[in-house]
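Problem 12. The chain below contains 393 residues. Write out its predicted structure in token notation.
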Amino acid sequence: MFSSLSVLPTDSVLGLIRLHAEDPNPSKIDLGVGVYRDAAGKSPIMAAVKEAEKRLVSHQRSKTYFGSEGDPEFLASIIPLVFGEARLPAERVVACQAVGGTGALRLAATLAAFASSEPRIWIGVPTWPNHLPVLQSAGLKIQQYSYFDPSTQSVQFELMKEALKQAKPGDLVLLHACCHNPTGADLTPEQWQEVADLLVARKLLPLIDFAYAGFATSLAEDRRGIQTILAQVPEALIAFSCSKTFGLYRERTGALFVLADSSKARAPILSSLQVLARTVYSTPPDHGAAVVRTILNDPELTAGWQGELRQARDRIANLRRELGRYGQVNRINFAALSKQNGMFSLLPLTKDEVVRLRTGYSIYMAESGRINLAGLRTSDMEYFIHSISEVTA
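Solution.
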């Protein structure tokens, strides 16, 4: 049966883990895999998470299944993180726990393909590389447009608007809530408002990827774009991830929220999600969700977690400011990085230059030129800038 299979290319970013681990150079820098690292270069478990896990070990009484929609207490606990002060009518909101933020995206795409005869989605590029295969494999037809110019480190907002003006009613539009991956370049409040107006005018359905809550400015500010959209559109899909916000990468904890256009639509949407989830993974994993609900339902743990999240956000912001002080290095404008958000930026490097940085300087990054700034330490700055200067001269 399997003799016809050939070896498929593996994820190039994940492959950097092994290459970096095997590199004996003491000056090596890992800017590849998208996980948060502290000043010591570690990806720590949050103290609030460890305390929540201790409580679960002591008090959890069952490992039985939840339904396909997941743990309702977990879903209720993260609604304020997603919607904030928005006064959305509960009878129009459908929530479904998913296998990480990626699972939420796939579930959203599968639901859209299930409901539409011609499912299309508009995606600005560059974007997270896994967006395209995940959404396409669910049955969505991909329409692309230019979102960001690495050479000028700027959002191509006019191109984005022109593309959305060509979209057909019922088309989906993928939007990054904050900390755009891979560019770090987010929409301004004014631009969010223009996008909301376009969605309404063209009768388009937003699919918002909310993977980095709290990593840009604050938990409240990072959802402002979502609130702007939801204040105007009748329907929306929001994929939420706990991977970065709680440091629960391997626990695969996320959720999909659907804003229905009426209370009457809620039951059909929920039943569809239940059936679709059941056919893929039956029921979602519980441990990460149990950790999150334990933290968010305890004021002391919530305060501790928010403090740890703030420390991570401040560290990344400080790294951006430090890089920004180097200004223009050959054709790379590091000053622009100080105005971006989150862990990622996209440098205008060629594939050959990325390879030379890896083989000649032990600096590891995606072939696209995307860097995870959290992989930098203050002590790395001079070496990193010098290496970039040498390679791009």
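Discussion. The chain has a mean pLDDT of 95. Students who got a different answer should revisit the alignment rule from Section 12.3.
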